[in-house]
Amino acid sequence: MRVTVAEDAVLMREGLVALLERFGHTVVAAVGDAPALLGAVRHERPDLVLTDVRMPAGDDDSGLRAAVTLRTDDPTLPVLVLSQYVQPVAAEALLDTGGGTGIGYLLKDRVADVTGFAAAAAQVAGGGTVLDPEVVHQLVRRRRDPVSRLSPREREVLDLMAQGRSNGEIAELLVLSGAAVSKHVRSLFTKLDLPAEAGGHRRVLAVLAWLRSGGPG
Amino acid sequence: MRIATAWQAMDQRPLRFLLTAWPWRSLAYLITGAALGVVVVGVFAVPSAGLVLGGVPLAVSTAVLLVAATIAVGPLLAVLERHRIRLVDEPLPAPSRPPGSRWRAPSTWREIGFALLSATGLAGLDACVLGCSFVLPVLLFGSPADDPAAWPLVIVGVLLLVAAPWTITAWAGARAALTRTVLGPRGTELGAGLADVATTRARLVGAFETERARIERDLHDGAQQRLVAVGVSLGLARLDVDDNSAPAARLDDAREQLGLALGELRDLIRGLDPRMLADHGLAAAVTEQARRCPVPVEADLRLPDRLPPEIASTAYFVLTEALTNIARHSGAGAASVSGRSHADQVILEIRDDGRGGADPAAGSGLDGLAERVALAGGRFRLSSPAGGPTLLRVELPCG
């Protein structure tokens, strides 16, 4: 796919370009600030926008604002944002655009896990939602009270589900049978009062929407 | 705790205090206060009589004399009051006045006003308290002699006499506190030296903040970026290596180490990271920290959005450090954080239901905390009995 990369640190930008190319994608533009990113996207119409939250470094979150602008203009444009540290506020601002599909919010450190990162980029480009486990943890923790009704196992399943994992993947990660995972999913959907028939991506959004309805704090 | 005032003595050990010198010192304080009043009123009463009895010229001249005398005597009485206060309170330094500015300095006029108040109203109250404590009981003891049915008054007398040490100390403490408030130095009167210390401290805090922000930025933009880039290179190299070869195992090991290093760096930056603070304010930053804490924390912060930056960052530091301590050492199952703002103070309270026994001297994060609070001119108090619960209370000035 065709990707636009915006990252002000040269070293990091080169790393991202090398990584994407290694996985067979084409980097159509690699820029270092928000205005250049907006220009490049208008010009190139990429399949995926990959941007740093802060550009230039140590400044404000102009990268995030550019991402929100792009999404508001074109809600179908897949955008993956990289952040130094978790800001649920920023993740939520993004999720509010275009119904939360084709959105990714990851910590910069995750890029070091190249295969995982490439998979996440592909998932976002395909219209999926990828949230950093840290963000999910914080969303889950925010809902401590209702979540406390869940068994530890169910909480693990919820955590992974919010990250967009399928039942099969969850089964593999938690070393459970597929049937056991389905049972956990069913029971936690019942406990959280969620529509059980939602599948695939809609399921992630349902879970995220529920987590976010806890409101800040 | 060192006992420095009569009030503290009474408050700390209400019964043992009877065996100390404090009740006697309070008594001496009131007797000298009342006596001073008698002397001053006596001295002033003679010319005042002239005012009333003499003709107009005499009245005018005595009035002028009286005003002059008051102005002259005021500062003298203030000196006496500052000496007397040592009976029941800590020494009271005189306000520093630049030479030659005696009659322009507000402290001089405070002294004159207080001298008048002290020698009249307050001396009268001294006499009343002494009377209630000693004279009235004696009169009550004598009442059954006139009327046998009045014996319950004897009980009242006994009670008054028994309560006398506390009554006397209570009023002596109140009077000393009032004296300290009016005659004590304020603001710039504390002297140039102290103002210097305060500005140095503010400069220190400012420098500390700047330095911290710089370190945090450098770590984000330097070390962290580099490490991630190295991680990418390692990851890409790993893809080109056969899974069962020796380099693959070494590469995996290197990547694992790198992951740990990045995690540590993240935690380190998080500890220094006032960025969240700058972006979203203290309440949001602390709520965020509370959410990260492995122990469930209830955060209730009602603080103004616009705190002075050095106070906000100190408060943030205190709260994050306290939460870290709770997570590491307390074994608590629940904790709570509250922040309130009063006129010129921010008050933070952090509680946990852990095992207690926290000791700033034991080299946990608490000594650093206490230092940081002192640097901001605040007050740090800790109650942590063995077995818990622990309460940490920090008061920060923000006037």
From TrEMBL, chain A:
<dbReference type="Pfam" id="PF00196">
    <property type="entry name" value="GerE"/>
</dbReference>
<dbReference type="InterPro" id="IPR001789">
    <property type="entry name" value="Sig_transdc_resp-reg_receiver"/>
</dbReference>
<keyword id="KW-0597">Phosphoprotein</keyword>
<dbReference type="InterPro" id="IPR000792">
    <property type="entry name" value="Tscrpt_reg_LuxR_C"/>
</dbReference>
<feature type="modified residue" description="4-aspartylphosphate">
    <location>
        <position position="52"/>
    </location>
</feature>
<dbReference type="GO" id="GO:0006355">
    <property type="term" value="P:regulation of DNA-templated transcription"/>
</dbReference>
<keyword id="KW-0805">Transcription regulation</keyword>
<dbReference type="InterPro" id="IPR039420">
    <property type="entry name" value="WalR-like"/>
</dbReference>
<protein>
    <submittedName>
        <fullName>Transcriptional regulatory protein DegU</fullName>
    </submittedName>
</protein>
<keyword id="KW-0238">DNA-binding</keyword>
<dbReference type="InterPro" id="IPR036388">
    <property type="entry name" value="WH-like_DNA-bd_sf"/>
</dbReference>
<dbReference type="InterPro" id="IPR016032">
    <property type="entry name" value="Sig_transdc_resp-reg_C-effctor"/>
</dbReference>
<keyword id="KW-0804">Transcription</keyword>
<dbReference type="GO" id="GO:0003677">
    <property type="term" value="F:DNA binding"/>
</dbReference>
<feature type="domain" description="Response regulatory">
    <location>
        <begin position="2"/>
        <end position="123"/>
    </location>
</feature>
<dbReference type="InterPro" id="IPR058245">
    <property type="entry name" value="NreC/VraR/RcsB-like_REC"/>
</dbReference>
<dbReference type="GO" id="GO:0000160">
    <property type="term" value="P:phosphorelay signal transduction system"/>
</dbReference>
<dbReference type="Pfam" id="PF00072">
    <property type="entry name" value="Response_reg"/>
</dbReference>
<dbReference type="InterPro" id="IPR011006">
    <property type="entry name" value="CheY-like_superfamily"/>
</dbReference>
<feature type="domain" description="HTH luxR-type">
    <location>
        <begin position="143"/>
        <end position="214"/>
    </location>
</feature>
UniProtKB/TrEMBL annotation, chain B:
<keyword id="KW-0067">ATP-binding</keyword>
<dbReference type="InterPro" id="IPR025828">
    <property type="entry name" value="Put_sensor_dom"/>
</dbReference>
<keyword id="KW-1133">Transmembrane helix</keyword>
<keyword id="KW-0472">Membrane</keyword>
<keyword id="KW-0902">Two-component regulatory system</keyword>
<feature type="transmembrane region" description="Helical">
    <location>
        <begin position="58"/>
        <end position="80"/>
    </location>
</feature>
<dbReference type="InterPro" id="IPR011712">
    <property type="entry name" value="Sig_transdc_His_kin_sub3_dim/P"/>
</dbReference>
<feature type="transmembrane region" description="Helical">
    <location>
        <begin position="26"/>
        <end position="46"/>
    </location>
</feature>
<dbReference type="GO" id="GO:0016301">
    <property type="term" value="F:kinase activity"/>
</dbReference>
<feature type="transmembrane region" description="Helical">
    <location>
        <begin position="112"/>
        <end position="137"/>
    </location>
</feature>
<keyword id="KW-0808">Transferase</keyword>
<dbReference type="Pfam" id="PF07730">
    <property type="entry name" value="HisKA_3"/>
</dbReference>
<keyword id="KW-0418">Kinase</keyword>
<keyword id="KW-0597">Phosphoprotein</keyword>
<keyword id="KW-0547">Nucleotide-binding</keyword>
<dbReference type="InterPro" id="IPR050482">
    <property type="entry name" value="Sensor_HK_TwoCompSys"/>
</dbReference>
<feature type="domain" description="Putative sensor">
    <location>
        <begin position="29"/>
        <end position="183"/>
    </location>
</feature>
<keyword id="KW-0812">Transmembrane</keyword>
<dbReference type="InterPro" id="IPR036890">
    <property type="entry name" value="HATPase_C_sf"/>
</dbReference>
<feature type="domain" description="Signal transduction histidine kinase subgroup 3 dimerisation and phosphoacceptor">
    <location>
        <begin position="211"/>
        <end position="275"/>
    </location>
</feature>
<protein>
    <recommendedName>
        <fullName>histidine kinase</fullName>
        <ecNumber>2.7.13.3</ecNumber>
    </recommendedName>
</protein>
<feature type="transmembrane region" description="Helical">
    <location>
        <begin position="149"/>
        <end position="172"/>
    </location>
</feature>
